[in-house]
Every structure is written in structure tokens, then in C-alpha cells.
Amino acid sequence: MRGVSVRLRPFRPGLVLLGASLLCGCSILSAPAPDTFDLTAPKHAAVKGNGRAQILIAEPTALQAIDSDRILIRPGDGKVTYLPGAQWADRLPRLVQARLIQTFENAHRTGMVGRPEDKFTPDASLVTEIRDFQIQAASGPVAVVTIAARIVSQTSGRIIAANLFTASVPAAGLSGQQASAALDQALDQVLVGVMTWTVGKV
Fold first, then answer.
1. Which domain holds residue 168?
2. What is the pLDDT of residues 158-175, one digit of tens each?
3. Domain count, the chain
4. What pLDDT sits at residue 28?
5. Is 1 within the bounds of a domain?
6. pTM: predicted TM-score of the whole model, two decimal places
7. So what's the pLDDT on residue 47?
8. Which residue has better confidence, 112 or 132?
9. CATH number of the domain where residue 120 is located
10. Residue 168 lies in a domain
């Protein structure tokens, strides 16, 4: 009687890992992508004066809770959370910086405005801090935007002026569209205030 020859195939752990990865990938791909929202710059603002000062606009600083691409919600009692399924088009400080520059450009009341990496010689720097940029959900809900601004002389490094700008706009609800629209309206008011004040100081 002849023996039966059995040929064993080598075990390939890589195939098992690949299969597991594909299964994980399927679960990740099935998760819906968050809705992405942008902010806008006011196109028409009544501004007195027509200075030619060149202004450097630095990226705003902010606490970690604000310095992200997530839409901040404050439900009350000191709690901080974020709106699920929604995000900004970029990190909030970068987005606010871009819209602030556009606000100055749209007003046509100063000379060159730009970022620190732009090649120009500014007369002054506009340094800002985002202190509030959230939906207050405890009562409302209400969009609140607060920006602290300082104008710094580029030659002496001294602070020429400082001011605080804030705006509140009722939100129609807590969906991504409703929250982002209310925050955009509040920011619009603050940007006009910052730009008008800066033009009057430089």
C-alpha cells in the first residue's frame, strides 16, 4: 500500500493582516465625512479716511479649544464641546486671518496688507487674539465672537492702540449650517469694527 502524500501550504500571516485591514477600511469608509463650512469677509463697509499705511496682519492667537477646525459649542456650566458632523474649512485662526486681510482689501482704505511671509515693508502690525468664537447653547443659542486687537509700530515696537471687539448673533439652531451662519454674521461685525478702528489709528 502506497502512502498518501499530503502537501501543506505555508501559512501567510500577511494575508490575514491584509484581510483585517480591508475590513477596517470598509468601516472607516462607511463613516460620513463632516460637512465643511467657510467664513466670509464683508465686501462693503463705510470707512472714513484713505490712508496709505502698509499693515502686516499676523495670524491670530487663541486658546487650544478655539485653535482648531472644529465648531465650538459651550452648553453651560463651563463645559466645552464641539458640533458633531461639522468643521471649518481650515484652522480657525488661519481662516480669520485670511478674512481679516480680505476685509481691508475690500475697503480700499489702506496701502498694502499682508501676512508676515509676504515680501513688503509694513508701517504697523495688527496683532489679534480670538477670545470667543462659539455658540452659547445654554440660552439661545447665540453665536459669540470676541477679538482683542493691538496695533504695533513696526519701527519702535510700541503699541499704538489696543481695543476689544465683540458681537453676538442669535442662531436659528444647532445644525452645522445654522451655527456656522450665525458665527459668520457675528464675525462680519467684528471684522468691520477692527478694520474701521485700525484705519483711524494708522
1. 36-201
2. 999 999 999 999 999 999
3. 1
4. 47
5. no
6. 0.82
7. 66
8. 132
9. 3.40.50.10610
10. yes
